[in-house]
Specification:
442 residues; mainly beta; Methylamine Dehydrogenase, Chain H; 6-stranded antiparallel β-sheet; 5 helices; 40% strand; signal; DUF4374 domain-containing protein
């Protein structure tokens, strides 16, 4: 294992004053319970620019901010592509926002400046001023780290990465042994302007699983448990063909897995396995697990073409509760459901953007985690070109959740949903460009 705790100034980086206006010293909550509405909150929309193919989002990201009043007004038009400000990223930026909407957090993804962390003060319109200087974590977590901020009062971000898995043979140089990469888990202290801790280690599966070629290909979506002493990190699984040493597609999946590590030390990795779900638990571009009001963690699965997405439950002992069975295929009456992104609102209610077998068209569903039910949200303009595959950001403000809905290359709207009543309000118009789409509200 390798660990480092130090101020980034020691790495030869100079800093100006770095203030996160959203952080509060008395907020030590780890669960994403309903938050009090913020009257002067900015609503920032992000748009991804086409690079080669419509909807690929790899040509960069622009952002633009409006007041809540304007965000809720269907007579207001927002054109992030003509009027917005680019944020640093070679491809689609991976953004997070503070609870009060006044700060954007960004770690650039891939390219010469991949792995660079920066924050922006949100000042309205295209006015985003960088607060502090850029900090590189690339030497620890690579140029393409996956990361999220923790629900700890906007004090901490956690980035994770797995090096390209390597095939290892037995001593004879021929017989397949296992495939493994080296994982990095890194915590970034927003307040102290420092990398708080990082750890690196292999993540072996059971001997039986590894002999069949199963391995962890990617980590993502770390979540701090209610007790604040463990991180639960989602996994993306792959399988090597032991006979050829190459990746298999369409392999028989083993149970969904997560990595549990001590917090804040990030040591003592342990892999837990669900017997209910068989999909990956890494999500893609957004949060994928949440601590609910009952203190348990709820986690979505992806990439299980046989069974569709499940919502899994991890109890306060940091183990999967296999008595909790919530199949979205069953709840929604579809086949091959796939949660592209989702967000817990509070009181057992969450909203998911998803697609299902036979089409990439996106939909929005209301989930009741306690009743284990889900239903399609009416009142949203669905379209065959609506694709949430790169969707990242929801805003939760009191009982309201804000979602950006734009088909690729077509105009759309911000929608505001009341999580208590289920009422849907069409908000500001989102003006699009050919091949582009909006990827979130922050």
């Amino acid at each position: 294992m390798k660990k480092s705790t130090f101020k980034l100034l020691a790495c030869g980086l100079a800093f100006t004053t770095f203030a996160l206006t959203s952080c509060s010293s008395d907020d030590n909550k780890n669960e994403e319970t309903p938050v009090a509405p913020t009257e002067d909150r900015w609503i920032t929309v992000a748009g991804a620019i086409m690079q080669t193919n419509p909807g690929d989002g790899d040509g960069g990201t622009k952002v633009y901010s409006v007041s809540k009043e304007d965000a809720k007004n269907p007579n207001v038009s927002i054109n992030v592509y003509d009027n917005g400000e680019p944020v640093q990223s070679s491809r689609t930026a991976r953004l997070q926002s503070s609870v009060d909407g006044k700060t954007l957090f960004n770690i650039t993804y891939t390219g010469a400046n991949g792995g660079q962390f920066m924050t922006y003060n949100v000042n309205g319109g295209k006015n985003f001023s960088q607060s502090g200087q850029t900090v590189s974590i690339a030497q620890y977590a690579g140029a393409s780290p996956r990361w999220v901020k923790l629900f700890d009062g906007d004090k901490t971000g956690v980035a994770v990465n797995v090096t390209a898995p390597v095939v290892t043979t037995e001593a004879d140089g021929v017989t397949y042994k296992h495939t493994r990469g080296t994982a990095t888990v890194l915590s970034l202290d927003f307040l102290g302007i420092k990398i708080a801790t990082y750890e690196q280690y292999p993540l072996p599966l059971s001997a039986e699983e590894e002999a069949l070629g199963h391995h962890i290909f990617r980590l993502d979506a770390p979540t701090l448990n209610k007790a604040g002493n463990k991180l639960i990190i989602g996994t993306w699984m792959r399988k090597t063909n032991p006979s050829t040493g190459t990746n298999e597609s369409g392999f028989e999946r083993i149970g969904s897995k997560s990595v549990v590590v001590d917090y804040p030390s990030l040591q003592n990795p342990k892999i837990i396995t669900s017997t209910v779900g068989f999909g990956d638990t890494s999500g893609y571009r957004s949060f994928n697990s949440f601590v609910a009001n009952d203190g348990n963690i709820y986690q979505a699965t992806q990439r299980d073409t046989k069974n569709g997405s499940y919502i899994l439950k991890i109890n306060q002992s940091n183990e999967y509760d296999n008595s909790y069975v919530f199949s979205l295929d069953t709840a929604l009456g579809v086949k091959g459901s796939y949660v592209d992104a989702w967000r817990y609102v509070g009181n057992g209610i969450a909203y998911a953007v998803y697609h299902h077998e036979g089409s990439d068209q996106g939909f929005v569903a209301r989930l009741d985690l306690n009743a284990k039910t889900a239903k399609l949200v009416d009142g949203i303009a669905y379209d065959a070109d609506l694709d949430f595959g790169q969707y990242q950001g929801f805003v939760v403000d009191g009982n309201e959740i804000y979602i950006a809905v734009t088909p690729v290359g077509k105009d759309g709207n911000i929608y505001i949903i009341d999580s208590v009543t289920g009422a849907v309000t069409k908000g500001a118009k989102l003006v699009n460009k050919p091949g582009n789409h909006y990827i979130g509200v922050f």
